[in-house]
C-alpha cells in the first residue's frame, strides 16, 4: 500500500467512515461519505476533475492557461520530430537543429530543458551552452528511454533562493513546506528534494503563508482549484514564481521528515468536504 492511500484510510478511520480495499495491491480503495462512494487509485484522488488534472500534468497547457495571471518562467514547447504521423500537423520545427535556432532566438543561457509531462525531476536539465541543449532534447525525444516524452520544453532559468510546495484544496492553502537543500549535495537530479540530505520543512510561519496565499490568489479568479500541489519558488531578488502544479502530490518525503499526522489531518478536512 502506497503512503498516500495509507494516510487517506487513516483519515477515514479517524472520521469513522466506511471504506473498502478493492485490489490485492491495496492501492485501489473506496471511501464512503454520506452513502456516496469515492475512489482513490494510487496517487489519483476524486478531488480533481479529469480536465483540470490533464492541464496540471501538461506543463505547456498550465503555462498558456496561467501566464497572464501569475508569474511563470517563460516557456516554449517543442513537439518531437519523431512523433507519430497523426501528430505531424502540429510539428512546427522539423528537426532538433531548427528547435535550437528558435531557442537561441527566444532564450538566454543558461536555461532549463525538460520533458513536458514529467515529475520528480526526471529528464530536467540545466543547460549552460547550446551543445547541452541539443543533448537534452535528444535524450527527451529518445523513444527507447523510459523517460521519453513527445514534447520537450525550453524554459527561462530562475535563480532560485527558496522553493516551496503548497497543497491547495478548494482554493484554500492546507499545507506548506519548504524543499530545503541547505547543506544538501547535488546527485544529478535538479529537483530540490532529490538532493542528498535535502529536507521537507513544514512551514507554519503566518507571514510566509500569507505571502504564498497572496501570490496564488489570482489563479483562483481564472478557475477554481479543487486540489493540487503548487511548486512555488522565490528567486534571489525575492520575486515569486509558479514553477509547476502537481495533480497528484506524493507525501512520502514529507512524512519522512515530519509527523504523518499532519497529512492525516489534512485528508480529514478534505474528506469532510464531501459531507
Automatic annotation (TrEMBL):
Keywords: ATP-binding, Ligase, Nucleotide-binding
Xref: SUPFAM superfamilies: Glutathione synthetase ATP-binding domain-like (SSF56059)
InterPro entries cross-referenced by the UniProt entry: ATP-grasp (IPR011761), ATP-grasp_RimK-type (IPR013651)
Domain ATP-grasp: 84-275
Presence of the UniProt keyword Transcription regulation in the record: no
Single Gene Ontology MF annotation: ATP binding
GO CC aspect terms: cytoplasm
UniProt xrefs under PANTHER family: BETA-CITRYLGLUTAMATE SYNTHASE B-RELATED (PTHR21621:SF0), RIBOSOMAL PROTEIN S6 MODIFICATION PROTEIN (PTHR21621)
Name of the featured protein: Alpha-L-glutamate ligase
Amino acid at each position: 500500500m502506497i503512503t498516500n492511500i495509507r494516510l487517506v484510510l487513516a483519515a477515514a478511520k479517524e472520521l469513522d467512515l466506511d471504506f473498502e480495499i478493492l485490489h490485492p495491491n491495496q492501492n485501489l480503495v473506496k471511501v464512503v461519505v454520506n452513502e456516496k462512494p469515492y475512489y482513490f487509485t494510487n496517487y489519483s484522488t476524486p478531488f480533481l476533475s479529469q480536465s483540470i488534472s490533464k492541464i496540471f500534468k501538461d506543463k505547456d497547457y498550465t503555462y498558456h492557461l496561467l501566464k497572464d495571471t501569475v508569474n511563470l518562467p517563460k516557456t516554449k514547447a517543442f513537439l518531437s520530430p519523431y512523433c507519430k504521423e497523426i501528430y505531424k500537423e502540429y510539428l512546427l520545427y522539423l528537426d532538433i537543429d531548427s528547435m535550437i535556432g528558435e531557442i537561441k532566438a527566444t532564450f538566454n543561457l543558461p536555461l532549463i530543458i525538460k520533458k513536458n509531462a514529467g515529475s520528480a525531476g526526471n529528464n530536467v536539465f540545466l543547460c549552460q551552452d547550446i551543445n547541452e541543449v541539443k543533448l537534452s532534447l535528444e535524450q527527451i525525444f529518445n523513444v527507447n528511454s523510459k523517460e521519453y516524452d513527445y514534447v520537450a520544453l525550453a524554459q527561462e532559468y530562475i535563480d532560485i533562493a527558496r522553493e516551496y510546495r503548497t497543497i491547495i484544496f478548494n482554493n484554500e492553502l492546507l499545507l506548506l513546506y519548504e524543499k530545503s537543500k541547505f547543506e544538501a549535495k547535488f546527485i544529478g537530479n535538479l529537483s530540490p528534494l532529490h538532493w542528498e540530505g535535502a529536507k521537507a520543512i513544514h512551514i507554519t510561519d503566518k507571514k510566509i503563508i500569507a505571502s504564498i496565499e497572496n501570490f496564488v490568489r489570482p489563479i483562483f479568479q481564472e478557475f477554481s482549484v479543487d486540489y493540487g500541489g503548487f511548486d512555488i519558488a522565490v528567486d534571489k531578488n525575492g520575486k515569486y514564481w509558479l514553477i509547476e502544479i502537481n495533480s497528484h502530490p506524493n507525501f512520502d518525503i514529507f512524512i519522512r521528515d515530519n509527523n504523518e499526522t499532519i497529512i492525516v489531518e489534512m485528508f480529514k478536512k478534505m474528506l469532510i468536504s464531501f459531507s
